[in-house]
Amino acid sequence: MESFGSSESSERSAKALTISRVTDRIHPRGHRGGVILMHRALAQFRLGTMNLVSAIFLFVLFLSIWLVLLPKICRFWTQVLVLGVRILRLRAELGIAHHQLASWIAFDIPYLRMEPLLPSATAWWLTCAVTIALFAASFFLSDKLIPVMYLLRGILLVPATALLYFVFLPAHFPHTPDSYMEGLVTAEIVLISIIPLLFGLTYYIFDFGLLKKVFLTAIAMTHLALFLPLQVLFQALFLQKTVLFMPMLYIIFGMPVNILIIVAFYSWGMTWSFRSDKSL
Q: Of 55, 111, 246, 273, which residue is the least packed, with the fewest Cβ within 10 Å?
């Protein structure tokens, strides 16, 4: 009995050891056998006191600078929109929405005002033809472009549903270009305002050095501030034709584009060397 128990115990130990070895070999490897290494940011992450202090300092600094400069930036946007309307010959007028954050900061948000036009038969059929053509073209993409194929089909759901909506309920469309444009500018101001907070929670805590943190935040906020009036003018080119394009502009070419820009800057910044690497 003792020999039987000891042999059974040794078999269990050997089996557990075999499973452990197999698990150790499989766990850090991908489906093609490549070793999965820990991301360098996680491998070198150490939440030091100075990084935490710098995160709080940079958040307060950039948010304060942004709020102080916001009235001047809004005036700059106004000038760009006025110039854009004149150059592009848009059927639009400049609108101003006054906002007061505190007793010491007030600003006027510029946006474009346009007449809401329902889609004509020509615009509807042309949009429908382009949507169907792009959907059919997705079937001819190679297997290497399967992610692009499904992304394209997902995007095409937006104009498809808009086309159906304007067939059955065109008079019940609740949005106007005026309210949409004002909401777009306001939402992007909020998005730019929270960049210091986003980077404070996800970038400043890493040991990249103060100059790199300042540069990444400044260039991201500046880029979005310059991009905003151009984005408004681009969308106005389509909205002056018909509100049929509003769902596509809002869901695909609205805030998601600005969020992707922030992600792109953050991803670029994460490729930089840490200060402990003693290299740029």
A: 273
